[in-house]
Amino acid sequence: MRDSKLVEILQTITADEFKKLEKFAASSYFSAGRDLTHFIKILKTFHPDFSDKNFTMEYIYSKLYPERLETGKVQQTIKTLSSELILTCKKFFRQIEFEKDINRQNYYLCNQLRVRKLYKEFDKEYKFSLEQLNNSNKGGINDFIEKYYSDSVFRDYSLDRDDFINAFEYTLAADENIVSAALMNCFMIEDTKNISAAYNLPLRYSLMNNVVDNVDTEKILSQMKKNKDRFYPYVLIFYMIYKMNRHKDIREYFYELKNQLIKNKNLFGQSENYVFWNILLSYCTKNSLKRQEFFSIYDYMLNNKIHKKSGEDFHIVLFRNIITVSADGGNFQWLEIFIEKYSGELHIDHRKNMYNFSYAHLYFAKGDFEAALAYLQKVSYDLFIFKMDVRILLLKIYYELSYTEQSYSLLDSLLHFLKNTSEFSDSHKIACRNFIYNFKELLKLNLSKEINPHSISFLEKKIEGEITGNIGQNDWLLLKIAELKRK
Questions:
Q1: Closest by Cα among 55, 47, 149 to 101
Q2: Residues sharing a CB contact under 8 Å with residue 39, sequence separation 6 or more, in sequence order
Q3: d(Cα 381, Cα 389) in Å, to the nearest integer?
Q4: What is the pTM of this model?
Q5: CA distance 128 to 150
Q6: How many angstroms separate the CA atoms of 126 and 55, rounded?
Q7: How many CA atoms lie within 13 A of 276 on its CB side?
Q8: How far is 221 from 224, CA to CA, in rounded Å?
């Protein structure tokens, strides 16, 4: 039973959810089949790992039917109960999602009130449903899709009441919402292409790309602006995202998008603003913008409380990027305040590791390499984000402390790790290998008894012409080369 589909499902359920599952299964409304309550109570005693030696079909059967002596039906009975419980769990999961989806609940409620001609109740609940629309997603694609549903239910309500003026207006409003959402979604195609390139995924023909390539967007936007269309600023911003990603070498699109986002920040909710500013950060990374540009975005996001989505933890990758950029930029006091203020917003499983990782970077940037090493040795390598970051920082610390033997050992370990891991994209692996090979050459030059200016200049030009991607170590390598030149 330990390897069964049922166990796989039940292991995903928390202790609190298990209690709710018991109530759900006991409800005659939700569970119209066989009574599973006793079966669930027995299984609960083995939750969550189901590794107890008594977790067998025979033991569970004996607990279910202590008076029955026949053993021939054990396997079939437990299999039947397990199949029914799997179906019940799927219904339970569906109910969990439905309870989370307040917008869909409100839509179905309003529609039922309309169908039953309970118009006073409809008026009250419809008004309430508009107030409950997720403010965090305001201005985004999903927001307009939700408004399509709310407008369409009011359109049908107006038709039922022979209110043809409102019926016509809400027909237009519903259509405008869905068309705007579709246009905005089309403009995200270049962002999708970036993901495709990053993970070496083939990009097939898509309707979104077809629309963007063949529709005169500039003319549409011109008419929207002329007619003071309420959707204009939303569509414009998504179009600017498209232009920025399509024409990466034209920086004006980046700055125009940034200005539009600042100007129209109140049109969007926390989660939408978070997504927009992360798109800007991705552009900065891909196009190697200056560190000050990254820092200005981080500072804006923190000051405007859009550094995470509503109700979610501080994303560990964004936190890591803020740490590395701020440390490399010498913003030590700002960084220390950031670590102490925001570490508690990380997922609890990552807080301790990221706290130590952050201080390792801070002390390394300050030049206190012993302290940096002490903090770094406390960081676990379990999470993928640390597997490369920790090793690279460790290499730099070994270099600064003249730990030659440790440096070479770690270099070999890193190359072996990159060869066998599938956790990173090919482009990231190339960037890491570039750093490793350049670091090895730097180490050789540093250990040489005589400095060869030609070799130093050759390595310097090589580094300047290479990409180290989001590991961003070229500046440090070039700094060390400058130090060698001064020897």
A1: 149
A2: 60, 64, 81, 85
A3: 9
A4: 0.82
A5: 11
A6: 51
A7: 32
A8: 5
**Whole-number Å distance between alpha carbons of 201 and 413:** 29
How is 400-451 classified by DSSP, letter by letter? HTT-HHHHHHHHHHHHHHHHH--SS-HHHHHHHHHHHHHHHHHHHHHH-SS-
Site of tokens 């989505």: 309
Tracing tokens 């070498």 back to the chain, one arrives at 249
**Across the 487 residues of the chain, what is the mean pLDDT of every consecutive 10-residue run?**
88 95 91 87 94 92 81 85 95 95 95 98 96 87 96 98 98 98 96 80 91 96 98 98 95 97 96 95 88 94 95 94 90 95 95 95 96 94 78 95 95 89 78 90 90 89 73 82 88
Single-letter code of the amino acid located at 391: R
Instruction: Return d(Cα 145, Cα 167) in angstroms, integer.
Output: 19
Residue 346's beta-bridge partner residues?
Answer: 314
On whether the CB atoms of residues 446 and 484 are closer than 8 A, the answer is yes
Residue 172: Cβ-neighbour burial (10 angstroms; 0-12, 13-18, 19+): exposed
